[in-house]
Amino acid sequence: MEYQNIKDLRSNFPGKGAIIPDRLKQHHDLRYVLIEKRTKKPSERKWQSERNYPADNPRLLGHLSSGGNYGVACGFGDLTVVDIDKEKLLGELGVLDKLPRTFTVHTGGGGTHRYYYCHTFKKKIILYHPVLKDPARSNSPLHLGEIQWKGQQVVGPGSIHPNGNSYEVIDDSPIAEISLAELMDAIKELKTSTMKETNKQPSTCLAGQLLG
Fold first, then answer.
1. 150: pLDDT strictly greater than 90
2. How many helices (H) and strands (E) are present in the chain, helices listed first?
3. Is residue 1 situated within a structural domain?
4. Is the pTM of this model over 0.90?
5. Which stretches does DSSP call E strand in the chain?
6. Residue 195 backbone dihedrals phi, psi, to 5 degrees
7. Helix (H, G, I), strand (E, B) or coil at 4
8. Total domains present in the chain
9. What is the residue range of 95's domain?
10. In this predicted model, what pLDDT tens digit does every residue of 75-94 receive, in sequence order?
11. What is the pLDDT confidence band of residue 197, given thresholds at 50, 70 and 90?
């Protein structure tokens, strides 16, 4: 199978911006947020509740045509994104083998975004290595990624990372459905937290304890 690459998702006109891929546009419940050029944070307040837009919204399209980035808002239409920072380590831990093939984006920072529909997901989960420590904070487990949900967004394919790299579609498969049980089984050997990350050491547990 040939995957779409970034050339398919960008405009052919110089100076123009990202184009939302057809694979995402076919899901009409999805919502998108405005992000300024080469940043990762939404540019509008209340984007979680009010200022999020369907793919054909004129404000969104104007923003993209001027070179702006965009984010895909999680939670809408039960969209859950497995946001992976440490692909190799999660592969070694067997997590990736348990995740169904799905629409996948290679991020500008070198990780991946795996898009899923999970109808009973409830809150963001932060993923940590069960053994390895963060080299910058020796008392904290090594952060591997997150499972994003309502109140979170991921930068959309075709956007540009602050480092200048592009977000690229590497698997144009349909967005797969995954049950909460399947998702928790995939991460059961990891340390996890459902708390918001702060400068303090997060409270973590094994993923299997989240179902208790």
1. yes
2. 5, 12
3. no
4. no
5. 31-35, 69-73, 79-84, 104-106, 112-117, 125-134, 137-148, 153-155, 168-171, 176-177, 191-193, 205-206
6. -85, 155
7. coil
8. 1
9. 6-196+205-211
10. 999 999 999 999 999 999 99
11. very low
Q: Look at residue 183 and tell me if it is in a domain.
A: yes
More confident residue, 16 or 37: 37
39: number of CA atoms within 13 Å, CB side?
10
Q: What is the DSSP letter of 30?
A: -
For residue 39, tell me if it sits in a domain: yes
Phi and psi of 147, rounded to 5°?
Answer: -110, 110
Instruction: Classify residue 35: in a domain, yes or no.
Output: yes
d(CA 115, CA 109): 17
Best CA proximity match to 194, nearest among 152, 156, 154: 152
The CA distance from 70 to 21, in Å, is 12
d(CA 60, CA 94): 38
**Two tokens, residue 7:** 């050339």
21 touches 72 (CB < 8 A): no
